[in-house]
Design goal:
With 320 residues, the chain is mostly helical. The chain has 14 helices and two strands. It has a two-stranded antiparallel ribbon. Helix 8 crosses helix 10. The longest helix is centred in the middle third of the chain and has 39 residues. The radius of gyration is 24 Å and the shape is globular. The N and C termini lie close together (7 Å).
Length: 320
Amino acid sequence: MNYLIRRILQLIPTFIIATMIAFILFSLVGDPFEGMRQDPRLASQVERLRKIYGYDKDPLTRYVLWLYNFFTGEWGYSIMAKRSVFSVVTERIPVSLALGIGQTVLATLFGLLLGIYSALHLYSTADYVATALVFFGMSMPSFFFGVVALFFFVITWPLFNVGLMTPGFHPEAATLFEKTIEYGRHLMLPLMLLVILGMGGFVRYARSSMLEVLNMDYIRTARAKGLPESVVVRKHALRNALIPIVTLLALSLPGILGSAPITETIFSINGLGKLYIDALGANDQMTLMADLVLTITLVILGNLLADILYSVVDPRVSLE
């Protein structure tokens, strides 16, 4: 319990340092309100907005002001969307959450199955094929798969759609089944690409961990006693082989939100990833910071969760 309290207290300075560095780096880009002077309707509001959000002060003072405002619910004004950052970010969360959870669950499931199968059929044709495909998927950039999939499955054979919904579709007037079909046609292809890109790490970890466990003495003893191979794998090897996977799964927590900026941009999906890319192009620092704060928070919580889960699945590790 003492270790857990110390780890939680360490999250505070970690969060402050990470957000401070990001805020100062974004501030070096320049004043985000300068672009508003080109719009006659907004030019008169520039100085007022600069004073409200502290852009007439030094970066450190501005960071303290931003931090206070952020925790009091005032996330700032989005220059890009011309409205509050809070509303811009929160409306994008459901889409990214659906993609992120779907990717994490499916990539973990298929990655574990393929990795364990490869370990149990070491140096077989299936093992070589799986290893080659995994390395190919991990080495190729996401935009390559995105453009190829867009060309074949959207343009050449229009099996899927881009964007979040078809123009003219009114979700408020549609049934749950109609909305599921509509969103599925738009999200299925990017979800499949994200699963292919994300399962490689789970395959490699599961394969190497299972191979290490299968060569341990207690596994040899179980086999020497005449236990069936299925019992040896399920009851003795699998649980210990999954220990590193639990840590990897916890560390993948930040990927649930905004983990696919390139994929979301290619398929015109208005999630947090695309929002980050758009905000970078518009120098919308308030939106960038809000998006980044979510990622930093999930990274910190993911590391804490990894420590806790590791002690749960492995009795040899104690939080004390």
